[in-house]
Amino acid sequence: MFTQKDYAKPIPENMSIVIRRYTNRDDMANAAAVGDVSPSLVKQVVFRISNLTKNNSAAIEVLAKTALANCENSITGATEDRDFLRCFLDEQN
Fold first, then answer.
1. Structural domain of residue 39, as residue ranges?
2. Those residues with Cβ within 8 angstroms of residue 13's Cβ, 6 or more apart along the chain or in another chain
3. Do 59 and 31 meet the contact criterion of CB atoms below 8 Å apart?
4. Pick from 35, 30, 27, 68: which is nearest to 54 by CA?
5. Which of 44, 72, 79, 83 is the right S-S partner for 50, CB 3.0 to 4.6 Å?
């Protein structure tokens, strides 16, 4: 996912925004454990306080994959909720 050119600088701002939107503290802790880095470092990288490095990139990749899964689950849930509300409102008319 990441290459040498991505290291020694903050993650892209749009990646930071999306990861923050679709992950929580527990997701960050889990990614940190998988990547064998501290949860506080993962948070610092996500918030663009610390740079991406080869050492922390595995945790950020895990977190990005978690964000994608959570985003997809949100879409599915929103679609189901929309369909339910449409049916409910149609029954009221």
1. 4-67
2. 48
3. yes
4. 35
5. 44
Cα(53)–Cα(19) distance, integer angstroms: 17
Query: Is residue 27 within 8 Å of residue 42, measured between CB atoms?
Result: no
End-to-end CA distance of the chain: 51
Q: Is 93's pLDDT higher than 80?
A: no
Give the residue with greater pLDDT, 1 vs 32.
32
The type of residue at 62 is V
User: Is residue 74 in a domain?
Assistant: no
Residue 92 has pLDDT above 90, yes or no: no
- The answer as to whether 75 is a domain residue is no
Name the domain count of the chain. Answer: 1
Query: From start to end of the chain, where are the E strands?
Result: none
pTM above 0.85, yes or no: yes
